[in-house]
Design goal:
With about 400 residues, this protein is α/β, with parallel strands linked by helices. The chain has 14 helices and 13 strands. The longest helix is centred in the N-terminal third of the chain and has 26 residues. It starts with a strand and ends with a helix. Belongs to the UDP-glycosyltransferase family.
C-alpha cells in the first residue's frame, strides 16, 4: 500500500482526466489524499480519495491572460493557490509519510515535490508542449514589453520561500510542471510531434469513469433525435453573444440543440430560444455526448477527448491556451472542422455543422483517434511504470 498525495489545478479540464488514475490507485488499496476545491470533492471521494480542500480562487475569476494585467492576475492566483496547497501539504506531512506526489502540469506540483523531498509524477491533461514554446505562447505580451511580476506576486513568492523553503525556478513552471514520469491522457498518434517526446512520457489515453452526483437533465428528450451539443467549457466569460448566434443559426435545426451555458453565463442576456433548444448552466456532458451527432466545442482537451470517445464529429472554435493546437491537430487528422474566432457567425456555424454531418470522413477521422485511445496502455500501464520507477529508486 502506498501513501499518495495528489495536487491539481482546480478546473474541470485538469481534475476530470485524473479521476481514472485516482480510482486505479484507490482500487488496489493505496491511500490517496487529494488536495482540491469544494467543486470536485464529491466526484473524487466517490472513487476512493480522501479530499482536502483549499479556497477556490479560479472559479469566479474573470481573467484575460492575453493582456499583461490579465496574465498578472492569473499568476497571482497560481501563487496564492500554491501557498494554500503547500500549507495543507505541511499539515498532512506531519501525520503521513507520502511515497510520491502525483501532480498536474498546472499549479503547485513541483513546489510540493520539492517541499516534501519525495519523487514526483506529473500528469498532463493536454498535449505535451516544450518549455520554450510554452514560455513564448504565454509570456509574449502581444510582442511588447516582456512580462514582469507585479508587487503582489513578488511579495507572495518571498513569503513562500520564507514559510516553506521552496520557490519556482521561473514563472513557466506554474504551467509546465514535469516529473520523473509524465502521465499523458492521450495517445502517441494524437500527440503532435510525438517522436520528440521520450519514453518517460506515458501516453495512456483518456479514461471516463462514471461521475457520481444528482442529475435532473432531461436525457429522455434526446432519444431517437438528431442532437447538436454546444459547449464552450467552464472558464470562458462573455459567451452570451455566441449562444445568441447559435440560437439564430440553428432555429430551424431538425433535432435537439443542447447548450451547456456554464455557471458564469448571464441568462438575462441570452435570447429566447425555440422549443427544440435545451439551455442549462450544467449539462452531464458524457451522457449528452452519448446521444450527440455533432459537438461544437472550444477545443479544450478534456471536451475533445470525451467527444472522440463517443465518436462524435467536432466543430472546433479555439479561443486560447492549448485550444488552437488541439484544433490544428484535429484538422490534420480530419476529425474536426475549425472556425477561427474572427470567423464565427450564423452562416459559418451552419456550414460547419452541415459539413461534418454530411461528410463521412470526419466520423472516420474521429474513429481512428478513438482506436488509438483504445490501444494505449490505460491506467494499468501507468501503475506498472510508476511502481517500477519507485522500485528502482529504492534499490
Amino acid at each position: 500500500m502506498l501513501n499518495i498525495l495528489m495536487v491539481n489545478f482546480p478546473a474541470e479540464g485538469h481534475v476530470n482526466p485524473t479521476i481514472g488514475m485516482t480510482q486505479a490507485f484507490a482500487a488496489r488499496g493505496d491511500q490517496v489524499h487529494y488536495i482540491t476545491t469544494e467543486k470536485y470533492k464529491d466526484r473524487l471521494e466517490a472513487v476512493g480519495a480522501t479530499v482536502h480542500l483549499h479556497t477556490d480562487l479560479i472559479r469566479t475569476a474573470s481573467i484575460d491572460s492575453s493582456t499583461p494585467a490579465g496574465l498578472s492576475a492569473f499568476m497571482n492566483i497560481h501563487i496564492q493557490t500554491s501557498m494554500d496547497i503547500l500549507a495543507i501539504t505541511k499539515q498532512l506531512s506531519e501525520s503521513t509519510d507520502f511515497d510520491f506526489v502525483f501532480y498536474d502540469r498546472f499549479g503547485a506540483g513541483e513546489l510540493v515535490r520539492d517541499y516534501l523531498k519525495i519523487p514526483g509524477i506529473a500528469s498532463s491533461p493536454s498535449f505535451l508542449i516544450s518549455k520554450n514554446r510554452m514560455a513564448t505562447n504565454l509570456f509574449r505580451s502581444n510582442g511588447k514589453e516582456p512580462f514582469q511580476l507585479d508587487e503582489q506576486a513578488t511579495t507572495s513568492l518571498q513569503l513562500m520561500k520564507e514559510r516553506f523553503g521552496v520557490a519556482p525556478k521561473d514563472m513557466v513552471q506554474f504551467m509546465n510542471n514535469t516529473g520523473a514520469l509524465n502521465v499523458v491522457y492521450t495517445s502517441r498518434y494524437f500527440q503532435p510531434d510525438a517522436d520528440s517526446f521520450g519514453e518517460e512520457n506515458l501516453f495512456i489515453g483518456p479514461s471516463f469513469p462514471e461521475r457520481k452526483g444528482e442529475n435532473s437533465f432531461p436525457l429522455d428528450a434526446l432519444q431517437d433525435k438528431k442532437v447538436l451539443y454546444i459547449s464552450m467549457g467552464t472558464v470562458l466569460d462573455h459567451v452570451e453573444d455566441f449562444f445568441n448566434t447559435c440560437i439564430e443559426a440553428f432555429s430551424d435545426f431538425e433535432g435537439i440543440i443542447v447548450i451547456a451555458a456554464g455557471e458564469k453565463a448571464d441568462f438575462t442576456k441570452i435570447n429566447p430560444a425555440p422549443e427544440h433548444f435545451i439551455i442549462s448552466p450544467y449539462v452531464p456532458q458524457l451522457e449528452v455526448l452519448r446521444h450527440s451527432d455533432v459537438f461544437i466545442t472550444h477545443g479544450g482537451m478534456n471536451s475533445v477527448n470525451e467527444g472522440i470517445h463517443f465518436n462524435v464529429p467536432l466543430v472546433v472554435l479555439p479561443q486560447d491556451k492549448d485550444q488552437p493546437m488541439v484544433a490544428q491537430r484535429l484538422t490534420e487528422l480530419q476529425a474536426g472542422y475549425r472556425i477561427t474566432k474572427d470567423q464565427i457567425n450564423v452562416q459559418s456555424l451552419r456550414d460547419a455543422v452541415d459539413e461534418v454531418m454530411s461528410n463521412a470522413a470526419y466520423k472516420e477521422g474521429v474513429q481512428k483517434i478513438n482506436d488509438s485511445f483504445q490501444q494505449s496502455g490505460g491506467t494499468e500501464e501507468a501503475l506498472a511504470k510508476i511502481d517500477a520507477y519507485l522500485q528502482d529508486k529504492l534499490v
